[in-house]
Each structure stands twice: as structure tokens, then as C-alpha cells.
Automatic annotation (TrEMBL):
<keyword id="KW-0227">DNA damage</keyword>
<keyword id="KW-0255">Endonuclease</keyword>
<comment type="similarity">
    <text>Belongs to the DNA mismatch repair MutL/HexB family.</text>
</comment>
<dbReference type="GO" id="GO:0005524">
    <property type="term" value="F:ATP binding"/>
</dbReference>
<protein>
    <recommendedName>
        <fullName>DNA mismatch repair protein MutL</fullName>
    </recommendedName>
</protein>
<keyword id="KW-0540">Nuclease</keyword>
<dbReference type="GO" id="GO:0006298">
    <property type="term" value="P:mismatch repair"/>
</dbReference>
<dbReference type="GO" id="GO:0016887">
    <property type="term" value="F:ATP hydrolysis activity"/>
</dbReference>
<keyword id="KW-0378">Hydrolase</keyword>
<dbReference type="GO" id="GO:0032300">
    <property type="term" value="C:mismatch repair complex"/>
</dbReference>
<dbReference type="GO" id="GO:0030983">
    <property type="term" value="F:mismatched DNA binding"/>
</dbReference>
<keyword id="KW-0234">DNA repair</keyword>
<dbReference type="GO" id="GO:0140664">
    <property type="term" value="F:ATP-dependent DNA damage sensor activity"/>
</dbReference>
<feature type="domain" description="DNA mismatch repair protein S5">
    <location>
        <begin position="215"/>
        <end position="333"/>
    </location>
</feature>
<dbReference type="GO" id="GO:0004519">
    <property type="term" value="F:endonuclease activity"/>
</dbReference>
<comment type="function">
    <text>This protein is involved in the repair of mismatches in DNA. It is required for dam-dependent methyl-directed DNA mismatch repair. May act as a 'molecular matchmaker', a protein that promotes the formation of a stable complex between two or more DNA-binding proteins in an ATP-dependent manner without itself being part of a final effector complex.</text>
</comment>
Amino acid sequence: MNAPDPRPIRPLPEILINQIAAGEVVERPASVVKELVENAIDAGASRVDIELEEGGVRLIRIRDNGSGIAAEQLPLAVSRHATSKIANLDELEAVATLGFRGEALPSIASVSRFTLSSRRAHDEHGSALQIEGGKLGEVTPRAHAPGTTVEVRELFYNVPARRKFLRAERTELGHIEEWLRSLALARPDVELRVSHNGKASRRYKPGDLYSDVRLAETLGEDFASQAVRVDHSSAGLRLHGWIAQPHYSRASTDQQYLYVNGRSVRDRSVAHAVKMAYGDVLYHGRQPAYVLFLELDPTRVDVNVHPAKHEVRFRDSRLVHDFVYRTLKDALADTRAGMSAQEIG
Ligand code: ADP
Ligand code: MG
């Protein structure tokens, strides 16, 4: 028997392409908040306002005081694979911004009722562009302070299969808050203000990286009061931040924050190195707590591993592993030496 004739091959419509990409980048309201706040930070914002309704499912509105976007560029900002952040392979390999794929806005816009409004500092007035289910409207004048506002209403309103996976308002809000905590730790220089259902819910005041204020604000006094400062460089690698003393261990990995060149990532090899550095001073099954920033030349790490950029790939992962292990092992040995000196003295 002959196989049936194949169906003709056709290019997918633009909107469907964006919705497929949204499947990878936009899992839930927290992923939208992540992409939009990262855009604000890439635009040099010093303040970001995050307005949420119903756990972000009904509304996410993010306003920043960053560079803004020229009116005639608004349609490009929401076009797939259009970005101001890289222009060639060399720039991709050395990328220092959080974004670079040019996918977030078109993806989000394809699964929501979306408005982008913006104004550059020297523009006479702002402009706005509305997109509904991926269909572009006209660019129209709109009053706006210098900076950008992105409004995302009714996420997944046109993708029932996705909407089904959304959880209760509290749960979705929890995911957003957890992500904002991780961002707040990395960028204490940026003021973040959050409101939920019309009520101010959180404010991260701007401060310095090592002021300890943000640390206590985000992870609590208990963590901040005993955490040990780490800052060590060697062979072009720098590791800095805080690690908890062994007596402050956790039942889960909920207070493990790792950043590679400012990007919050999960990395099994680094997590393993940290765990090893604690060794058997941690009780069985307990997890260390830490906020660690690893910095290295951007060409030594590939950030283009996953569309949501939760992971990176080190060119020399063995070297990174050993550096993290050594640095933390020494830091922990110092705290023990310091503690016994105190006990003696
Ligand atoms: P990417 O961040 O990977 O470049 P996005 O789809 O997130 O892709 O954004 C597309 C472009 O729109 C960005 O490269 C940037 O030029 C512009 N843009 C997006 N958000 C902002 C913002 N908040 N402020 C200024 N420009 C922005
Ligand atoms: Mg982006």
C-alpha cells in the first residue's frame, strides 16, 4: 500500500511563529514580568514600577524611566528577531545586556492584549502602539514621561491550553515576587515598586550593592546578620556576595541565588561546588544559603543556551567549579578560625 501524498509544506503565519516562541519564553505571568523588567534595566532605568492585577493574569503594567523608544521604532520593538542590543556574532559572544534575542515583546504581544508606550527624553511627546492577539495597530501620540510603559492584559486570553495551566492568584503572585527578590538582590541600584490589585505591596528602595539593606529586605535579618562577605578574584574570575554560615542552613534550596555576569541562573556545577565547599559541616540533607555573583569575561560564557536564559554554559566549567569551591572553602575556614578565636579571646 502506498503512503498518502504528503501535505504541502507552508511557512507558518507570523502570529503563529510568535505564539510558538511564546511557548518557550512565556510560561506564566512571572516570565512576562521578568522579560519586561529586564528590558527596563537594559534601557538604563533607575526606577521600575510594577503594577499587577489578579496575580498578573489580568494585568501587568511595567513603567520605567529608561532610555525610551523612538516612535518610528515601536513596530520594530515588537517584531520578531529585532533588537537594539546586538548586531553581529562578535557582539552576541560578548553580550552584556540581559536581552539579545529580540523575542520577548513579539511573543508576549501574541498571547495578550498588549500596549507599548514610550518617549525618549528629548521627544516632544510620547507614542503608543497597541497589539491585540499579535495584530499591530497604528502608532499614535500618547502623553508619557520619558521612559517606557508596557501593558499586558489578559495573558493567554487567546491560548486556552496555556490559560488552563495558570494557578491561583496567590501562586502566580508568589512566582512574581520570588523572581523580583532575585532581581532586587542583583540590582540594588534600581528602585522597584510593586502594587497588586491597587495596593502598594512591595518597595525596594535604591541602595548600594554591599549596604546590607537590600540583603535584609529581601532575605531577612536572619540571613543578613550572620552572612559572610566573600570577594575573591583569580585567573580572570571574580566571585563575590554572601554565604550563610553552616549553622544557618535550610531544608531546601530556596535561598540559593547565583548570578553570572549579573544574570540570575541555575547551574548544577556551581551549586555542586558550593555544596562541596561546605562539605560535612552541613547536617545531612540541609542546604546552604547564598547570594553569589560570578563575574568573568563574557566571551568565556555562553548565555545563548535556552530561550528563557535560565542557564549558561562555561567554556571552561572545570576551572569555574574549582575556583568557586576553593574560594568558598577558604572563606568558610576563615569564619571557623574567626569564631574559635572569638571563643578563645
Ligand atoms: P531584546 O530584549 O532581546 O532585545 P525584546 O523583544 O525584549 O528583545 O525587546 C525588543 C527591543 O525593544 C529591545 O532591543 C529594545 O531596543 C526595545 N525595548 C524593549 N523594552 C524596552 C524598554 N523598556 N525601554 C527601552 N527600549 C525597550
Ligand atoms: Mg528583552
